[in-house]
Amino acid sequence: MAIPPYKAPSRSAYDIVIVGGAVIGSSTAYWLTQALGSGASILVVERDSSYEFSSTALSTSAIRQQYSNPINVKISQFGIEIIRGFQERMAPFYKDEPAPDLGFREHGYLYCCSPEGVDAARERVDLQRSLGAHTVFLEPGPLKERFPWLNVEDLGGGSWGSREEGWFDSMGMMNGFRRAARASGVEYIDNAVTGLDLADGRVVSVRLATGQTVACGTLVNAAGPRAQQVAAMAGLSIPVAPHKRYSFVFASANPIPGRMPNVIDLSGTFVRPEGELFLTGNTPQGDGAADYDDFEMHFEEFDDHIWPALWHRIPAFDALKVQTSWTGHYEYNMLDHNGIVGFHPEVRNFMFANGFSGHGLQQSPAVGRAVSELIVHGAFQTLDLSPFCYERIPRNEPFLEEAVI
Fold it and tell me: Domain of life of the organism in this record (predicted)?
């Protein structure tokens, strides 16, 4: 893996050091500057400023409100608010060029539902609608009428997000947050954190690959799939590890008419349009923790597992040709697939922003704001993300979310 040349920091001490400068770290940096202005010194340490292997760059860049837990629905609703207003929000930081339009494709998600899962699916839809989401449950007949290319013979129905779900430009969001943070005085450096020094239950300094040691008031772990590496430097442990996900972009000899949503099959395979092409992926066979630098592609996943599932669900997908593919990493929380957000109770200035298990991009606006609130105010001011607290980890008390892809 090629790493850009590392650079040294400009100071010997910072109020806040953020480990990881992709979308979670940059959102946090942005929200901190919104709260503090230039009143705090903030350093973001990013080991790969090309972001070539970041989960942000390699994600499928989608957002949904179809969750089983109210807080996850509300987190996504704030994400939608940010996506819709992103260009206007970022305009002050783009003096000589247009601010990024995130190109939101509001096609929705369509969750296919087995006959046995209808009651639970209807309950989730009722919950989502009670919170203001636009999800509807469609029985097989209406489902076929709306999406005539879908095989509904083995389905009990489907839940469809008719508004405020879809996909968008992941790097546009990350680069916007990053640019706004830098314009507001946040320092970004190409470097890697190699160690943390602790005293009296606090992180007092951060050691860098270039040999410098910088003093630290608050340490934010936004290291994505490498989150456990950073936690271990403070003698801590979280059940977060990189899990590989393979994405394939393919052409179909038969077009799909109409406004195709992101279809989530019973098998776990998903597919959505990507311009004239289609993007697909799944939970791969033998899913487990991967090495941090393992981005090897398994092309057989498409032929052996994904294509059969696609062809069954969408019979028009009988003649497909893969155009491109890539491997990305989920920062997978093996306890409950939900994020870990908050200070450690013993290492009191160590902040977790980890383990989002594929939801980090869509949750980054709310998570960055929440982390900044905890740092600045000592408590959540907007959305209460206390169910994501670290304390549930040693208690082995999962914060469960049924709608995990």
Answer: Bacteria
Give the integer Cα–Cα distance in Å for 373 and 382: 8
Return the amino acid letter for 138: L
Does position 2 have pLDDT exceeding 50, yes or no? no
* pLDDT tens-digit map of 164-193: 999 999 999 999 999 999 999 999 999 999
Spatial contact of 86 and 102, defined as CB atoms under 8 Å apart:
yes
30: left (phi over 0), alpha (psi -120 to 50) or beta: alpha
Could you tell me the pLDDT band of residue 323, with boundaries at 50, 70 and 90?
very high
The pTM is what? 0.96
Query: What would the DSSP string read from start to end of 277-322?
Result: EEEEE---TT--B--TT-----THHIIIIIHHHHHHH-TTTTSEEE
Q: Which of 128, 97, 124, 102 is nearest to 113 (CA)?
A: 124
181 CB burial (10 A radius; 0-12, 13-18, 19+)? buried
What three-state secondary structure class fits 179? helix
- Give CA–CA dist 41/229, Å, rounded: 25
Question: Which of the 8 DSSP states describes residue 289?
Answer: B
The 10s digit of each residue's pLDDT in 123-163 is 999 999 999 999 999 999 999 999 999 999 999 999 999 99
**Beta strands 166-167 and 187-190: pairing type?**
unpaired
Q: How many residues does the chain have?
A: 405
Q: Which residues pair with 340 in a beta bridge?
A: 354
Residue 151: φ, ψ to 5° = -80, 115
Q: Report the alpha-carbon angle 223-74-351, nearest 5.
A: 30
**Mean of all residue pLDDT scores within the chain:** 95
State the Cα–Cα distance between residues 15 and 367, nearest whole angstrom. 20
